Amino acid sequence: MSDVMSDVPASVPASVPVPTHFQSFLAFDFGAKRTGVASGNRLLRTATPQATIKAEGADARFAQVEARIKEWQPDALVVGVPYHPDGAPHENTRRAQKFARQLRGRFNLQVFEVDERYSTTEALSSGARDADAASACIILEQFLRSLL
């Protein structure tokens, strides 16, 4: 399937300019068993943790993602993409990128990818009770700080 005719580009790195009319965002810290979720907005540049999605398998996960999107009505989505410390991709990099592509395809929203190295470590070191949701907050706040 080609994106040539679509008015919404495929997943793009956060370094791509974000249209100023995009104000609200939902972020995901993708995991095979748990996916952290955070909501936030451009004005305050803060993120709020949401209940972590605990679902294995794409159908169960996307049913919960769809419910969150309907609830929050975000202008765009943000997905944390993990890399090795040296920046090299690994299997979870590819899984998170696939998740980002699937989000875009299913919900027709622009998806921004953010390098999420150390977000879980940072969440755990801060004493987060839900490291997945806290990591999604860190990912989203990093994204929001990058906006002009």
TrEMBL record:
Belongs to the YqgF HJR family. This is Putative pre-16S rRNA nuclease. One of its GO terms (molecular function) is nuclease activity. Residues 23-123 form the YqgF/RNase H-like domain. Could be a nuclease involved in processing of the 5'-end of pre-16S rRNA. One of its GO terms (biological process) is rRNA 5'-end processing. Its EC number is 3.1.-.-. InterPro entries: RNaseH-like_sf, YqgF, YqgF/RNaseH-like_dom, YqgF/RNaseH-like_dom_sf. SMART domains: YqgFc (SM00732). It comes from the Bacteria.
